[in-house]
Amino acid sequence: MKKFPLVLIFGLLSIVFGCKNDKNTDDISVNEENVDKGISSSSKGLLFDPCSLISLEKLGEIFVIDPKILALKKDQYSGDFSRSCNIKWSDPADGATYSMLIIMEANPVPGEIDDWASSYLSSRLQNGEKSFPDNGKPIKYVKFEGIDSESAYNVQSKKLYWKINKDYVMAVFMSDSFKPDKAIQYLTNLHEVLTKNILKKLK
Fold this sequence. Notes:
Layout: E1 35-37, E2 46-48, H1 56-63, E3 71-74, E4 82-91, E5 96-106, H2 116-127, E6 129-130, E7 138-139, E8 151-154, E9 159-165, E10 168-174, H3 180-201
Antiparallel strand pairs: 1-2, 3-4, 4-5, 5-10, 6-7, 8-9, 9-10
C-alpha cells in the first residue's frame, strides 16, 4: 500500500503511530484528559484529539467490519494548532490493509482573519497543494458533493477538508486501498459523525 503524501499544513502531517484510544460510546462524550486546552482560537480554546471523537463501534459500523481489528494511533507530530489520528486495519475478507488519517486544525492567527476556515478552504480550491514526494505534483480540489459544509476534495488522493466553524477545519485522508466510490460513501458518513460530535463539544 502506498504511503500518504506528506502535506505541509502549517508545518504538520507525517503519519506516525503513537497513542492508544480509549473505547467510547457511539455518541462521544469527550474525556477532559483527552482534550488539549488553551491552544485553538475557539471560544473555549479547545483542540480535540480526533481519536476521541469517534468510537470504534461507529467506525466498525461505517466500514462494515469488526471494530476489534481497528488500531487507532495519535500522530506524534501534531502541532500547537493541529491534532491528528491514524486509523489502520487489515480486512481478512479481502486481504487488503487500509489506513486513514483524521485531522482537526484550528486558526493559528486568531483575530487576524475573520473567517479563517473559509479562507483555508478557498485556498485549497483555488490553488490546490503540492504533494510529496511526487516532485511537488499539484493536488487539485473541488467541492465535495452531498454535504452541507464548505469543503475541498480530491478524488485521486481521497482527501477531504471541511469547515466546522470559522476557526476550525477537519480533514480525512484515505489510503490507496479504498475504492473511489466506496471512499465517497465512507467520507460522507465520517463527515456526519465527526461534525456532530465536534459541534457538541464546541457549544
